Amino acid sequence: MRRRISKALMMNTVQPVPYYRSLLWDHPEDLLFFEPQGIDWERERVRGLRLHRGQWLRGYFAVPETVYNRCFPQPDAVVEKFAAFLGTEHIFNERTHLDKWEVHQHLRASEVGEYLPATYTYDEDELTKLVADHGALILKPRLSHGGAGVLKITNVSQNVIIVLTQWGLPIPLWDERLHIPFLTALAPPSSCLAQEYIESLKLGQDKFDVRIVMQKNRLGEWDVGGELSRLTEASNLLTNHYYAIVPPRDLLPGHVLATLHSISRVVADTLDKDLAHLGELGVDFLLDEEGKPWILEVNGKPDKSLFRKLNDARVLRRVYLNPLAYQDHLLSL
Q1: % helix, strand, coil for the chain, step of 5
Q2: What is the DSSP letter of 305?
Q3: What is the spatial distance between Cα 255 and Cα 201, in angstroms, rounded to a whole number?
Q4: What is the pLDDT of residues 210-236, one digit of tens each?
Q5: DSSP character string of 10-33
Q6: pTM recorded for the entire structure
Q7: Rounded CA gap, 150 and 127, in Å?
Q8: What is the DSSP string of 117-171?
Q9: Both 108 and 127 in a single domain?
Q10: Is the same domain home to 206 and 179?
Q11: Domain encompassing residue 30
């Protein structure tokens, strides 16, 4: 009978994650890394990598006691099977690929609804009216990530618009009879959203966002795992094309950062209750020219590697250790 490893990470592709090995002093217990294709339900075993005392061992192992889902998108059928096999409380991050419209609807009904840009589904007629009403809009796919497919539309006159791609290429379009069908072909209404454009607060010739990573701790409570800001040139549409990553405390006063923490906690509580069993998520903000924060996006699988660029070993260690501490909480249930 194989001994069950208590903590496992389910990944798209099994490979050593070197940083976990560096955590040996803080977390000496074994970790199992596996992918959905490596599960043998009939024999109740998984094929994967075991991190044991700093060594990576490949083989077959008993189904673990808790699973931290790091797959993107989430393998729904596998997640459901683990929930049935282990109990729903023993697998978390059941959703990593979040539908922006679904997230918006849940948050709009919560106490942080005032921090959401106006967001719409649309057809051709509605898009015409939205462009006229707002002057500038963002079109984005409901299920995209990393800024893929995002467009900015600016209404220049009754019959002229400027389309800006994420790469900063402005495209002028004339004649509404032509550009509306063109836009709905680029951003199909069946899979995209329209969102009011928020003019970002500038720092000289730059702008920035703030990402708050919320994680559950060993008490099973939401806490701020880490925070960072991406700096980019003000002319760029998105902060994905950043030139530096810095601590938000270098850019914002403490009371503003505290507000972002409070908003993020409500976001995490709401989606954890309404959407799925979650253990971590990232909340992306921008501040407008008056300093009001706006929730731009919620990430179901925040990129921990960005924290390496902060050169803060304490924060980096915390964002990697918190989910493992949450697994300790699940094991105690």
Answers
A1: 30, 35, 35
A2: G
A3: 17
A4: 999 999 999 999 999 999 999 999 989
A5: E-SS----HHHHHTTTT--S-EEE
A6: 0.95
A7: 15
A8: PPEE---HHHHHHHHHHHSEEEEEETT--TTTT-EEEEEEETTEEEEEETTS-EE
A9: no
A10: no
A11: 7-92
